[in-house]
User: Which sequence fits this backbone?
């Protein structure tokens, strides 16, 4: 039986072609149909979670439903909104994506070619592209959307160097043949006001780039218009690529990468956990609010305004409880105050929150310690203990580096080709051939743990005679030159280890993109 002859394939085709109900014979069929139809809905959900605003999440679940699919669960916490419950959002999805980016690119990799001139030219091109920021953004997009693509831009009026724009999955389409990309179509939207909306489709095919501009307020009424209709696209022309020897360029002139090699968002398997975390987080805060100290005041104690209305002097409506007079005349009541011990009461909430958080991080391939969930050992851990504690993160990083290694090689080749290209009389673009084996991608060592943890670890290594003072300072201050390290060592007594430790600045300036140093709910009881 062929693939298209399977009953589920026939059911899907019939379901998509008309609005008649399809009788699904088994729950498994229903599940497969859901996965097939709901990809666009999931992609929108992942972007909403990545942005991370509770109002947007609630609005999404209340207004956006999967296409033609009535079986979606409607009992997510984000859909059940009580008017008196202040729903809170713990921004775990965004933390996951930013942490993935930091694990890979907190310090960007270096790219070297066998030819020093080409290495220098590439460094200038990457600097023009703000390479550090480009990689951070790309890794975040890849994490939440599952797929990313880079579109090249050549605009000599703007820059002498070729530029790259990164797109998340929802802004491009991949057409595959034999499970390999055959064409990538980028979508750029230009809103001109007064309901004037234009969409540029950039078709990157093997050896070609073609541009098409459409006008219309929705996909249903789109019509193609000339490229010079708007200023942003007026200078665009279709491009055909060749190698310098005249041979047809046999690659797609853009870059495409799938998350973890499967194109699935890091959020795919943690949506339920994110909902559970928000529910526990919201109820924890709601419990703390409702458990505030309450003062019980006899009615006769209340002040009155000029009209005789009795007033409550409180910011919240539950801080003061009125005891209405019901005692015999002449009998007085006393004002009383509750004192609530929260530590024991909220421990269950804290345990639930941290357990769900740890399990969720494990699902996406991150160690809780990576985002700041430390155990009691703190900075006293050894280097081996730190490595073990972040073992999951290190394995995830290693797997991702293998995928990014090839993408960065392809990026270097494409940028150099476009920078040094020649344009023929026929308007065709001729590119130089580069060998990927001549390119070396060097990822810096992952810096596990906080700065103080590294200081403590290096101290233990020095005590054991496993490392020299010079190497210790280089590890702590990788940006310092050899001369600066020598000057620093000269100021330290050769045999006084304590002076070496005291010379280390324990409050170094933070760099952009540093790991989140706190996560979870700390138990200090």
Assistant:
């Amino acid at each position: 039986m062929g693939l298209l002859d399977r009953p589920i394939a026939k059911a899907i085709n019939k379901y998509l072609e008309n609005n008649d109900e399809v009788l699904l014979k088994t729950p498994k069929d229903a599940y497969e149909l859901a996965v097939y139809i709901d990809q666009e809905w999931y992609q929108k959900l992942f972007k909403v979670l990545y942005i991370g605003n509770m109002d947007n999440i609630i609005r999404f679940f209340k207004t956006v439903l999967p296409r033609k699919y009535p079986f979606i669960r409607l009992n997510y916490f984000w859909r059940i909104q009580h008017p008196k419950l202040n729903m809170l959002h713990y921004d775990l999805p965004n933390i996951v994506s930013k942490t993935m980016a930091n694990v890979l690119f907190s310090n960007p990799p270096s790219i070297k070619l066998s030819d020093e001139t080409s290495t220098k030219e590439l460094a200038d091109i990457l600097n023009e592209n703000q390479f550090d920021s480009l990689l951070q953004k790309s890794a975040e997009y890849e994490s939440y959307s599952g797929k990313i693509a880079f579109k090249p831009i050549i605009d000599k009026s703007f820059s002498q160097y070729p530029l790259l724009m990164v797109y998340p999955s929802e802004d491009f389409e991949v057409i595959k043949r034999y499970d390999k990309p055959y064409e990538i179509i980028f979508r750029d939207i230009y809103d001109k006001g007064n309901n004037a909306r234009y969409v540029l489709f950039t078709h990157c095919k093997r050896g070609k780039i073609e541009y098409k501009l459409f006008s219309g307020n929705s996909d249903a009424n789109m019509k193609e218009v000339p490229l010079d209709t708007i200023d942003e696209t007026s200078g665009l022309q279709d491009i055909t690529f060749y190698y310098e020897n005249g041979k047809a360029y046999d690659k797609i002139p853009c870059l495409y990468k799938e998350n973890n090699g499967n194109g699935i968002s890091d959020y795919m398997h943690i949506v339920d956990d994110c909902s559970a975390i928000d529910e526990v987080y919201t109820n924890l805060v709601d419990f703390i609010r409702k458990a505030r100290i309450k003062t019980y005041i006899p009615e006769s104690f209340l002040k009155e305004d000029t009209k005789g209305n009795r007033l409550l002097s409180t910011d919240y409506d539950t801080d003061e409880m009125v005891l209405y007079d019901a005692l015999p005349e002449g009998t007085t009541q006393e004002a009383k105050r509750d004192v609530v011990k929260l530590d024991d009461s909220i421990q269950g909430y804290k345990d639930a929150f941290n357990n769900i958080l740890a399990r969720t991080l494990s699902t996406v391939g991150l160690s809780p310690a990576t985002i700041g969930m430390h155990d009691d050992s703190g900075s006293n851990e050894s280097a081996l203990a730190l490595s073990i504690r972040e073992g999951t993160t290190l394995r995830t990083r290693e797997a991702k580096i293998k995928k990014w290694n090839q993408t960065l090689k392809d990026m270097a080749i494409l940028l150099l080709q476009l920078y040094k290209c020649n344009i023929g009389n026929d308007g065709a673009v001729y590119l130089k051939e580069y060998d990927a084996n001549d390119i070396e991608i060097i990822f810096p060592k992952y810096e596990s743990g906080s700065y103080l943890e590294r200081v403590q670890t290096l101290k233990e290594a020095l005590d054991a005679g496993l490392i020299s003072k010079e190497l210790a300072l280089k590890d702590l201050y990788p940006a310092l030159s050899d001369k600066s390290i020598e000057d620093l060592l000269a100021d330290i007594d050769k045999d006084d280890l304590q002076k070496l430790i005291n010379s280390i600045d324990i409050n170094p300036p933070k760099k952009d993109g540093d790991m989140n140093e706190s996560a979870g709910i700390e138990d200090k009881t």
